[in-house]
Amino acid sequence: MSAVSEKQDMLEAELVRLEGLLGDLEKDWSRVPYAFALLILAVPAYLKWGFMGSSLTILTVVSFVATAYYLIGVRKAEYRGEMAEIRMDVETLRRTGG
Q: What is the pTM of this model?
């Protein structure tokens, strides 16, 4: 097996791995809205600490959801970028006779 075909196999394996990770992120992305269910905690926070407690609970939950969307979105963009680079590398190897 030549070094070029080994590199091509390695790149294709990495592409499969990234596709799997991207699929996992898509599942996580669809689950994030369920975190809004934590807003129900604003009620006991209000009863125990008043308006400030419930406000901070709401702010925390909204911040958590926004952060989750941001982090998952950035990671998805990174994976897609890496996958595009790998596809270009594989295509280059194929064109050069690998």
A: 0.84
User: Measuring CA to CA, which residue among 72, 96, 74, 76 is closest to residue 84?
Assistant: 76
Question: For the chain, how many residues are written?
Answer: 98
Query: Could you please report the per-residue DSSP string of the chain?
Result: --HHHHHHHHHHHHHHHHHHHHHHHHHHHHHGGGGGGGGGGHHHHHHHHHHHHHHHHHHHHHHHHHHHHHHHHHHHHHHHHHHHHHHHHHHHHHHTT-
83, amino acid identity? M
Kindly list the domain boundaries of the chain, sorted by start residue: 3-95
Residues 11-30: tens digit of each pLDDT: 999 999 999 999 999 999 99
